[in-house]
Specification:
It is found in: Golgi apparatus, cis-Golgi network membrane. The protein is built from five helices and seven strands, in the order ββββαβαββααα. The protein is α+β, with helices and mostly antiparallel strands.
Length: 139
């Protein structure tokens, strides 16, 4: 556990590997959108990290990214392409994080900056609108 350095001054166990500071969810969305984060204990066990998209192996800094509620981060274009290749009748539970197999869609009762930012991003594409319970838009 550590104290986030942002004005919110929240106690958190989320640790930014790149900047080597504790961060809260507000910081993840605003200041660390392209950073690899995990728990501080994970950092102590394995301080090596790869700041690349695991789907395309290029630097996360090169393109727009999105963070899932599991805190794994990908290029938005890579995640969108991967999900678009799934069959149209895929159930929401079938959309999983390519790294940890956690859900792509945040639970309906999950609140917070990361979940809100993810919902906003997902609402922009048809494959995700159904999983969010939103009507489809014309392509």
């Amino acid at each position: 556990m550590g104290l986030c350095k942002c004005p919110k001054r929240k106690v958190t166990n989320i640790f930014c590997f790149e900047h080597r500071v504790n961060v809260c969810e507000h910081c993840l969305v605003s200041n660390h959108a392209k950073c690899i984060v995990q728990s501080y204990l994970q950092w102590l066990q394995d301080s090596d990290y790869n700041p690349s998209c695991t789907l395309c192996s290029t630097a996360l800094a090169d393109k727009d990214t999105t963070r899932l509620v599991c805190y794994d981060v990908f290029h938005w274009s890579c995640l969108n392409e991967l999900a678009s290749q799934l069959p149209r009748n895929t159930a929401p539970a079938g959309y999983q994080c390519p790294t940890c197999q956690g859900p792509v869609f945040p639970a309906a009762n999950l609140v917070g900056p990361v979940a809100a930012a993810l919902r906003e991003k997902l609402a922009s594409v048809n494959w995700a609108r159904a999983g969010l319970g939103l009507p489809l838009v014309r392509d």
